[in-house]
């Protein structure tokens, strides 16, 4: 074989290997022809809670920016009103409409698996954030580490009460991955500290009124408590209001970046700790979907670091409170440059 033939063969093989590498690097589920501007679907489990309204706002704002960049044409939004079966039907309608990508905050860890696999099989990018499903037949999951969330909250509580005492645990809805995983994370710490007694615990919606009612009932049944391990911001706000109404002395309490809780924390001199499930996880999901549709390889799991809100950082959140709903969450700032850095994590 001549030198020219050898060189030509090498070039051909290199080109073939390069095309194989590119094909292997493509994001999962994305196949077939996807050309900008893309159509996106946002399958919301429910729109009533303020957290979800704020999340939808971040998605629509991100989509508006992507539209201005010529990358997105439309956003289809559905509301399952808390019903996982309805959410399945709405996702199916998005598949039938041949959207390019679907964003999902799941109403069940398992019920959506089949329809998600169907979307993936049809070449649709599927991005799951916040409340996660237990299937990997999708493009990417985007979340903070909920186990770490629970562990950090429980660690802080144990230190505040000196490694022993009686606490009440407040959880979000049972069966929702965010709530269940936070509780699992907390349990790993509580088991290591047998002198910390869980007097009682409850599961409620992430809303102040039901949390306050639940805490009121628990206070009547438990006169002596040393701390409240609330694994959600509106839960801790409800706990503070319940204790205040009964004239009970406030105890160390964990929570989240819920505006009312942060304001009560400051006003009442509470011993508090909080972290955040950023509402812009939805915006990040929209950005990630477009990256995947453009042929870029995105991580199967995008981990968003958990910030810590303590006495030192509380004021920086309170200073921005006026920019958020009175019953909303004060979340951190975000932009596409930050999203690109999160997707580049190894």
Automatic annotation (TrEMBL):
<dbReference type="InterPro" id="IPR025997">
    <property type="entry name" value="SBP_2_dom"/>
</dbReference>
<comment type="similarity">
    <text>Belongs to the bacterial solute-binding protein 2 family.</text>
</comment>
<feature type="domain" description="Periplasmic binding protein">
    <location>
        <begin position="47"/>
        <end position="297"/>
    </location>
</feature>
<protein>
    <submittedName>
        <fullName>ABC transporter substrate-binding protein</fullName>
    </submittedName>
</protein>
<dbReference type="GO" id="GO:0030313">
    <property type="term" value="C:cell envelope"/>
</dbReference>
<keyword id="KW-0732">Signal</keyword>
<dbReference type="Pfam" id="PF13407">
    <property type="entry name" value="Peripla_BP_4"/>
</dbReference>
<feature type="signal peptide">
    <location>
        <begin position="1"/>
        <end position="25"/>
    </location>
</feature>
<dbReference type="GO" id="GO:0030246">
    <property type="term" value="F:carbohydrate binding"/>
</dbReference>
<dbReference type="InterPro" id="IPR028082">
    <property type="entry name" value="Peripla_BP_I"/>
</dbReference>
């Amino acid at each position: 074989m001549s030198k020219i033939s050898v060189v030509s063969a090498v070039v051909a093989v290199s080109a073939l290997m390069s095309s194989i590498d590119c094909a292997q690097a493509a994001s999962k589920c994305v196949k077939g022809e996807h050309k900008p501007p893309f159509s996106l679907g946002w399958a919301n489990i429910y729109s009533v809670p303020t957290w979800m309204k704020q999340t939808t706002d971040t998605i629509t704002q991100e989509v508006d920016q992507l539209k201005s960049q010529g990358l997105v044409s439309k956003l289809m939004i559905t509301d399952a009103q808390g019903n996982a079966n309805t959410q399945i039907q709405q996702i199916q309608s998005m598949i039938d409409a041949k959207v390019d990508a679907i964003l999902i905050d799941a109403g069940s860890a398992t019920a959506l698996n089949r329809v998600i696999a169907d979307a993936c099989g049809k070449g649709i990018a599927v991005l799951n954030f916040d409340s996660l499903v237990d299937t990997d037949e999708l493009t990417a999951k985007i979340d903070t580490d909920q186990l770490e969330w629970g562990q950090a909250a429980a660690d802080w509580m144990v230190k505040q009460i000196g490694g022993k005492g009686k606490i009440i645990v407040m959880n979000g809805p049972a069966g929702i991955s965010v709530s269940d995983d936070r509780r699992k994370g907390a349990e790993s710490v509580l088991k290591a500290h047998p002198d910390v007694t869980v007097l009682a615990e409850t599961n409620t919606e992430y809303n102040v009124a039901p949390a306050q009612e639940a805490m009121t009932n628990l206070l009547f049944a438990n006169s002596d408590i040393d701390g409240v391990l609330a694994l959600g911001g509106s839960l801790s706000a409800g706990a503070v209001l319940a204790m205040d109404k009964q004239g009970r002395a406030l105890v160390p309490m964990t929570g989240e970046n819920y505006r009312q809780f942060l304001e009560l924390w400051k006003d009442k001199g509470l011993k508090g700790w909080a972290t955040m499930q950023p509402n812009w996880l939805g915006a990040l999901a929209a950005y990630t979907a477009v990256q995947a549709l453009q042929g870029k390889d995105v991580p199967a799991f995008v981990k968003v670091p958990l910030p810590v809100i303590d006495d030192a950082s509380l004021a920086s959140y309170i200073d921005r409170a006026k920019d958020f709903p009175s019953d909303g969450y004060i979340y951190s700032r975000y932009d596409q440059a930050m999203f690109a850095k999160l997707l580049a994590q190894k």
